[in-house]
Amino acid sequence: MTNEDFITTFPYHFVVDQDCKLVQAGRELFNHVPRDLLVPGTPLIRIFEINRPQIPLDFDSICNFINAVFVLQVKTTPMEFQRSITKRNSQTMEGSGGVESDFGSVDHMTQSQHLKLKGQMMLTASGRHVIYLCSPYVTSIPELLQFGMRLTAMPLHDATRDLILLNQQRLSDVEMKFV
């Protein structure tokens, strides 16, 4: 498998060295993290904060918890993404009086702009790098849209697609009970 094949197969991933500095990042991360942070050599701690497990974000700690599920949260939001959220919010406020949109409150959309990723850390055979294979930690179509994502941005093998669709069906079923 070539490096390009790997990047295409796993659009949400990154590789770090023993100093926890970025070596490589998946193409979809560029839609959620400022480009200047995704250059090789950037310390991982500048890009993400760790939500789970509650450990320091360093190579040794990651290796000690290699079998755990890791949830990382992007610390910043790209400027162009912030502008699109602001534009969408102003359109929503104009169309609905600023109270509710079809996807929830405007305030909710602006409060949680930092994408979370859920996945697995894997130590490479050389023991000098860790690969984080992950998916966006989203559970509904409104949440997906909140981050400017589409289901088609996720690979077919990613169970997140099925989770989102099943959850949407469940929400629709609940709504139908009250109609």
UniProtKB/TrEMBL annotation:
Keyword Manganese in record: no
Statement: the UniProt record of this protein carries the keyword Transmembrane: no
Pfam families: HNOBA (PF07701)
Lineage: Eukaryota, Metazoa, Ecdysozoa, Nematoda, Chromadorea
UniProt keywords, alphabetically: cGMP biosynthesis, Nucleotide-binding
Domain annotation Haem NO binding associated: ranges: 2-177
Cellular component, GO annotation: guanylate cyclase complex, soluble
UniProt xrefs under Gene3D superfamilies: Haem NO binding associated domain
Organism per entry: Heligmosomoides polygyrus (Parasitic roundworm)
A single MF term (Gene Ontology): guanylate cyclase activity
EC numbers: 4.6.1.2
Record-linked InterPro entries: HNOB_dom_associated (IPR011645), HNOB_dom_associated_sf (IPR042463)
Protein name per UniProt: guanylate cyclase
GO biological process: cGMP-mediated signaling; response to oxygen levels
Recorded superkingdom: Eukaryota
